[in-house]
Amino acid sequence: MLARGLRRLRGSPLREFHSDYYLRINQRRLEHLATLPLPLAERSVLEVGAGIGDHTSFFIDRGCTVTITDAREENLAIVGRRLPGNRRPASRPRRARHDVRRPL
Q: For residues 52 and 64, is the Cβ–Cβ distance under 8 A?
């Protein structure tokens, strides 16, 4: 049943990443990440497989410099629209298309 539901969502990244199922799991992930005693303030973060950047703002809010990668150019374009450069320059995530066949 779950697989059938996920197949229906295929297509638009926003539709895939913002399904009720995904949003619920993602919220639990962020809650867990916030409880970990990690010294994240003002660190450099490489977010591999960032999707549409649902975790990126977590790191930006902690003053991190973030480089995001994803295999889908469409996802990186969405991140660019969701996290535009209207914040301080250090908070703008650097985006890079990631292809496992070609090193970054």
A: no
pLDDT tens per residue, range 48-98: 989 899 999 899 999 998 988 888 888 888 888 888 664 444 456 777 776
CATH superfamily assigned to domain 2-97:
Vaccinia Virus protein VP39 (3.40.50.150)
The amino acid occupying position 4 is R
* Whether 69 contacts 98, CB under 8 Å: yes
Calculate Rg over the CA atoms of the chain: 15
CA distance 53 to 93: 10
Strands 65-70 and 94-97, bridge-based pairing:
parallel
